[in-house]
Amino acid sequence: MTRWIHDALYSWNQAGSATGCGENRMDITTEGATPSSPQNDLEKTSESKIQKPIKIFFCYAHEDELLLQKLQKQLGALRKLGLLDFWHDRDISAGTNWQQEINQQLDEAQIILLLVSPDFVNSDYCYSTEMEQALERHRQGTNYVIPIILRPVHWQGTPFSHLQVLPTDAKPLSGWSNLDEAFFDVAEGIKKVVEAFLKEEKTQDGKQIRTNKPDVQIVHPHKIKIPASFFMPRFGLRNIFFILFCLFLVIGNNIAWFFVTQQDQLRASLRSTAAANTYWAVTARRGVDFGFNAAHTRLNPYEQIINTMNAIHLAPLWSYHTGNSIYSESAVINSTIYIGSRDGKLYAFDASCSSACQPLWSYQTGGPIFSSPAVAGGMVYIGSRDGKLYAFDASCSSACQPLWSYQTNDWVDSSPTVANDMVYIGSNDNRLYAFDASCSSACQPLWSYQTNGWIDSSPAVAGGIVYISSFDGNVYAFDATCRKTCRPLWSYSRGRALVASPAVADGMVYIGSETGEFYAFSAACRNSCQPLWIYTGNKPFGSSPAVANGIVYVGSDNGKFYAFDAACHNPCSPLWSYQTDGSVYSSPAVANNVVYVGSRDGKLYAFDAACRNSCQPLWSEQIASSIDSAPTVANGMVYIGTYNGDLYTLGLTA
Asked: Is the per-residue pLDDT at 503 higher than 70?
């Protein structure tokens, strides 16, 4: 059966060359069968009694969740007909053994969609675990695998390269001029496979069982025609009955509306609860770094509470005053909020607290903290200007002490990054350090590398590469598999200071400089790498970029917040910029199509991530005299530190 469906999908993709450019047709036929239109097949199917819908398993990287959602919408009609049932890892309930659940769903799925992108290929779990299991089931003939190329990536030669891919001609979805047409093209290809499954099912059953639909007509109260005689002076029993009947319809309609509204609210609440449970479960498993993930994309794909419609109702819910300014970004994981302060303390708060919140615990280091915490593998890591990297037990809830610390030779303002069982961090002693994440006491670096300038930048790790910048003006790239005497794979220098942290997404590396240049490199480069493009501003880019939905966001010391097209190749100019009243050193955060960023004007801003031109804030709030800290968004809350020394928690008030 699998081979037959593969041939059907192949013939659909080849139809473009047979019928001319821009025309894609396929009539699925079997030997001895009469061709019929796809629409008629589905109409017939929708009238048939199907025991179970065809289950589709989505295998994807979480960086591509917005594209996943668009594909689900395109397939929504088939789902409403009862032909399809979707599953992906967002459907895993809290407390569930996620590995067993994924294996079970892979076994039950008839169609497995591989949503291929650079993040998919670079994800060890997606590429090496889920995909291998899917292809093995495909070889056994128990399911059908369809690769879908979301974004440009070198997929030829991969284990799935022998399969026919979507969209037509393997053109990545992001390369289409009209994204809706691209998703429609993919949905059409999937629909052909669904029809093939249904025909196979019909052949096996030998017949279709028809169901009789009752002819039900809903009459809305506002469409009822009231006879003119009703308004005559004579009110008989018939008219009284008619009045009562109309009142009954009106009241019944209002009661029904009330219950539908309540159900909608309940569904929204359940979706939010499910999203929150997923956030806690996934972050507990994968950890949280500066920039949310090791690649520093600064995208939280799990947020489903705050959106572009209700963001205007954000307001401070509670705040806590530390002893000095907060430059650190908070990490929210395991129902706990971690954040550092210039007063030298690492603080931990209960994320369920809603008012008058006090720390669960705090630890006083020997110097101010500018570093942001990273939490992974049951450990909390943070640097301090006393020159130390600290490691705490994440299960500790009171009077917590470090499990270990390592003394460098200068300040540690860099934020740690945990990836591939390693902890990476820079120091103002000019070194990048790499530690074994499994170490729990008296830990020493596995290796370190000496640059010619201090390292404030936080390492980004993606695609097996560790990226870091140094005040010596270099961007460095190291092999993440290296464990001893490591040297850069490549470095690039314009002789200009770099203190911002890189972000890696969509096969690109983005980073800003202190002298006003914003750089974009190819993440596929391994030797003698040069920028693909450079944007030159008039002030430093001290902000670290965020990347989401094909847009790169970054702030500048000139007070502007910029948005660049991630698909740009040279020369590149901003899609739009917004002028705040202060320098923008805060790094942006993206969640549920909303972009958040702070400014030294003391305001926190929220923008619509779908905006592409002349964008204005959806909302802003004056919360301090100045903000350098980056916002963190999790489960309907926005957390941000201020120059005044306050940790603010904002949420929806209406």
From this structure: yes
Token representation of residue 153? 């990536």
Gap between the Cα atoms of 552 and 214, Å rounded:
53
pTM of the entire structure? 0.64
Q: Are 173 and 166 in contact (CB under 8 A)?
A: no
- E strand or H helix at 59, and its extent? strand 54-59
Report which of 20, 124, 34, 16 is spatially closest to residue 462, judged by C-alpha positions: 124
- Residue 267, SS3 per DSSP: helix
3-class DSSP assignment, residue 270:
helix
Q: Quick one: pLDDT at residue 377?
A: 94
The tokens for 165 are: 């891919």
Cα(30)–Cα(27) distance, integer angstroms? 10
Tokens 């806590």 map to which residue? 320
CA distance 47 to 195: 14
Which SS3 state, helix, strand or coil, does residue 313 take? helix
Cα 548 from Cα 395, distance rounded (Å): 32
E strands, 451-549, are 460-462, 465-469, 474-479, 488-493, 503-505, 508-512, 517-522, 533-536, 546-548
Helix, strand or coil, per DSSP, at residue 143: coil
pLDDT digits (tens, 9 = 90+) for 235-272: 466 667 777 777 777 777 666 666 555 555 555 555 56
Q: Cβ distance 386 to 366 under 8 Å?
A: yes
Give Dmax over CA atoms of the chain in angstroms.
Answer: 102
Q: Is the pLDDT of residue 300 over 50?
A: yes
- The pLDDT value recorded for residue 411 is 96
Gap between the Cα atoms of 398 and 354, Å rounded? 20
d(CA 517, CA 21): 42
577 near 560, Cβ under 8 Å? yes
Q: Taking the CA atoms of the chain, what radius of gyration do you get in angstroms?
A: 28
Torsion-angle region of residue 22: left (phi > 0), alpha (psi -120 to 50) or beta?
left
For residue 391, which phi and psi values (nearest 5 degrees)? -130, 125
Do the Cβ atoms of 632 and 639 come closer than 8 Å?
yes
β-sheet bridge partners, residue 554: 562
